[in-house]
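Hi support team,

I submitted a single chain yesterday and got back a structure, but I'm not sure I'm reading the token output correctly. Could someone confirm the output below corresponds to the sequence I sent? I've pasted both exactly as they appear in my results page.

Thanks,
R.
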Amino acid sequence: LKGILLFLGVAIIFLFVGLVIYFQKNGKGLLEEALQVALKRNVHIAGGVFYQPPLGVKATKIDIENLMHVPSVTVQFNPEVFFSPSHLKIASVVFSKPFAVVERFDKMEIEQQAESPAVPMAENTPPTASDIQAPVLSEVKPAVEQAEVVTAHRKRILGVNIDRFVVKDGQLYYTQHSADREFSFKVEDIRLEARDVIFPFQSVQTQF
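Hi R., thanks for writing in. Yes, this is the structure output for that exact sequence:
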């Protein structure tokens, strides 16, 4: 009996070490590719990637090009990740405190901005994409190049199934610029949970 327990203990230790090594080595790539295929945007993880038992990773400082910045993402993969890498099955994805800035300009406003000198931002003016650095990457790739990046990743991952997708404490800044007025609003504490999310997106099977 002692021999069996010792064998099981050693096996568990080796399994744990193997999982740590696997996800430390492949977790960042898996997460970036999964998000790029799902969102059809370039994704960059600027922070660290850490193993999260039993089959997951936690990543920090994730920039989703022209969409949002996510300070922390925690992902738990299904065991199928080892056997079917072309179609990822994910048990859960949790976005913690994501935030985004959306700005809209009409044609006249764009022309006036091109002709007018820069004016210092007044107090209580809502933030713009340039004021909040994280949501927009410093180097924005052209749409054609972006499509090529996503297509290249799709050669490896063809689809992503997420059993549970959660957004916690999200923030959205929206500004509409026009020639005669400026409209803006801010939404805080955004919470969202969806189940059976399938990418490429299939709304029939997704439950909110």
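A quick pointer for reading it: The helical segments are 2-39, 107-115, 143-154. Let us know if anything else looks off.

Best,
Support desk
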